[in-house]
Specification:
There is one protein chain. Helices cover about 50% and strands about 10% of the residues. It has about 300 residues and is an alpha+beta fold. The protein folds into 2 domains: about 190 residues, Winged helix-like DNA-binding domain superfamily/Winged helix DNA-binding domain (Arc Repressor Mutant, subunit A, Orthogonal Bundle), CATH 1.10.10; about 90 residues, Alpha-Beta Plaits (2-Layer Sandwich), CATH 3.30.70. The strands form 2 sheets. The protein has a 4-stranded antiparallel β-sheet with strand order 5-6-4-7. The chain has a 3-stranded antiparallel β-sheet with strand order 1-3-2. Strand 2 and strand 3 form a beta hairpin. The radius of gyration is 20 Å and the shape is globular.
């Protein structure tokens, strides 16, 4: 997808966005729809393949691609499926609700605690479980904010040891994962804090990705969105959250003490918060009009509470 260059052509780029042209993948879009649009209506909220395809039609995602992606997400234990006659309904798997909740905290709240100078370290035995299981554990540890120091070694200055241990337990299939939290001892021949931060936080690379997000979505702040059709409002909401989600969950949490002055991630959060607030209600109208009348779920939680910490 070509980045929007200004307010005049931002909406044209929005309508042209397709998964085949740089927009987030179908999997990322589907997970975003479940986390951002469906879960606020309650954990029991379900959606059919047909309705989900209608929600994502603007991205060029058809029913076949939706069905394939849903099957993989069920196999990954992120979603659960229920058959009713010849139709299937999908919702967030009960075991994955905590994972979605933790993702929501990082996406919509973005609160970073003060740093106590210690690091949480997770060491995965390379001979334990399967390669796929180890990869899944690394992926979910990244979701909660940890970064890679070395093969099968993850670390974070802000993720607690209890959160890391709970992630290991949730993934399952392991018996010898080492989880600890300690200060770094610096001396000749040891890995110091600066090098540890460089390896697992990759601050310069993270900053570059946030700048690209600001360049891409900043023009929507200056575009007129008040008359945006509900379908386009939903598409913009999903597109912005999916892109921001991919950044936030793909990067380790960086505490205030290790962030450069004028951290560009704060600007990126301000951009997505502003765009989200402007289109959330119209997007919600499209969501409810698209879901089957018998599957609307409960009244949504307060969408205005999202990004509340951003001014």
């Amino acid at each position: 997808m070509t980045p929007a260059a200004g307010p005049d052509d931002a909406l044209a780029h929005l309508r042209a966005a397709r998964t085949s042209d740089g927009a987030p993948s179908a999997r990322n879009l589907i997970v975003t729809v479940f986390g951002d649009a469906l879960l606020p209506h309650g954990a029991e909220t379900e959606v059919s393949v047909r309705a989900l395809a209608r929600l994502l039609d603007g991205f060029g995602v058809n029913e076949r691609l939706v069905r394939t992606s849903l099957t993989r997400l069920v196999n990954d234990e992120l979603l659960a499926v229920r058959a009713e006659g010849r139709r299937s309904y999908y919702r967030v798997a009960p075991a994955a609700l905590d994972l979605f909740r933790r993702a929501d905290e990082r996406i919509y709240r973005g609160e970073v605690p003060d740093w106590d100078g210690a690091w949480t370290v997770v060491v995965i035995d390379g001979s334990e479980a399967t390669a796929d299981r180890r990869a899944r554990l690394r992926h979910e540890l990244a979701w909660v904010g940890m970064g890679a120091v070395a093969p099968n070694v993850m670390a974070s200055p802000v993720v607690s040891a209890s959160t890391a241990a709970a992630t290991v337990q949730r993934v399952g299939g392991f018996e010898h994962v080492l989880v600890l939290r300690s200060e770094v001892v610096e001396s000749a021949g040891t890995l110091g804090i600066d090098e540890l931060a460089r390896r697992c936080l990759a601050i310069d690379d993270v900053a570059d990705r946030y700048r690209s997000f600001v360049d891409r979505f900043g023009p929507y702040r200056r575009a007129s969105l008040e008359g945006l059709a509900p379908a386009d409002a939903f598409k913009l909401r999903v597109l912005a959250v999916a892109a921001f989600r991919r950044l936030v969950l793909g990067e380790p949490s960086i505490p205030i003490g290790l962030r450069p002055v004028g951290w560009v991630g704060d600007e990126a959060r301000s951009v997505v918060a502003d765009v989200y607030r402007r289109v959330a209600d119209a997007a919600e109208d499209f969501l409810l009009a698209t879901l089957e009348p018998s599957r609307p779920g409960a009244e949504p939680t307060d969408l205005a509470a999202r990004f509340r910490s951003v001014r």
